[in-house]
User: Fold this.
Amino acid sequence: MVLVCVEDFEQKAKEHLEKNALDYYKSGAGEQFTLSLNREAFRKLRLRPRCLRDVSKLDVGCKILGEQMKWPLGIAPTAMQKMAHPDGEIGNARAAGKAGSIFILSTLSTTSLEDLAAGAPDTVKWFQLYIYKDRSITEKLVRRAEKANFKALVLTIDAPIFGHRRADVRNNFSLPSHLTLANFQGVKATGVVTATGASGINEYVSSQFDPTITWQDIKWLKSITQLPIVVKGILTAEDAVLAKEFGCSGVIVSNHGARQIDTVPASIEALPEVVRAVGNDLLVMMDGGVLQGNDIFKALALGAKTVFIGRPAVWALAYNGQKGVEEMLSVLRKDFEITMALIGCQSFKDIQSSMVIHESAYSKL
Ligand SMILES: Cc1cc2nc3c(=O)[nH]c(=O)nc-3n(C[C@H](O)[C@H](O)[C@H](O)COP(=O)(O)O)c2cc1C
Assistant:
């Protein structure tokens, strides 16, 4: 069967994943209203294509934090990728590198940041960070990321605790015993995650992550590193302005794949207010629900400079490791290029906000 869209990769992934893992990757928080909304909100946006505009030479390359990327799509951090396929984070990162995409490594990865750097040396890598109660754990991660040539730190700010993911609680989810949180070999984090209970991962998070953190902690982070800091998990203009005031280099508008708090807006719904608030001063990016070329286009037209995908890369990895991710990225890239051409844009400078409009504009007719 030829796989022609991200949904095809998800179907294939289901044939390869145990229920425990599939539910973990798929789940959103609560009744998963926002999980559906992340898709629905894209569907409510209509494209307004322009015609006769010479689209013979497409150029979809872009510069992100000084790095030349081949297109405006990167891989978001998702935890524990070896549960999907033995190629794990290295396979995913190599595929990203080949496609000219940024790869963000999760703190909660099954490959250490040193092994990832050695395994995918040519990929532009960012490191996703949580702030631990024991600040020395976070500081060591920062030093290791610097040494391993990661280009930015992505501080996830929407997870002082983890959301209530019902399937994980039902399944008593924990990391399979043959895998570890590879950034913490020999440190107390290993093992805690395999504990049973409400959900092994939630137990780990509440025992280790610091729920007291505030914007002041960005000052601390900035005081210990020169790496650019991107905050991930912004859903309001107010927090975007704080990110600017506290000296962050960029924001990722994100609801964590709808896994933290249910009934928050879709990321694509929150994007415009963030762009209005800080779009001239900060690099604004987004993730959540991106499955096809026209989703990427809509996010760009609403002011994002690049988008990220989480689950689609996990599905492709589960289906066929690194090769699966390469194939999925190539399908998505082709779809994005078709969108660009058919809407009348040869490059980003041709993209106008008027090319995307909410469906309500048509119901008034
Ligand atoms: C299985 C899974 C694990 C995730 N793990 C992390 C993580 O470790 N750190 C983080 O900042 N975000 C994590 N996220 C959120 C993603 O980075 C991203 O925000 C989200 O997946 C984007 O939505 P999408 O899956 O619809 O593309 C995770 C998401 C999923 C689905």
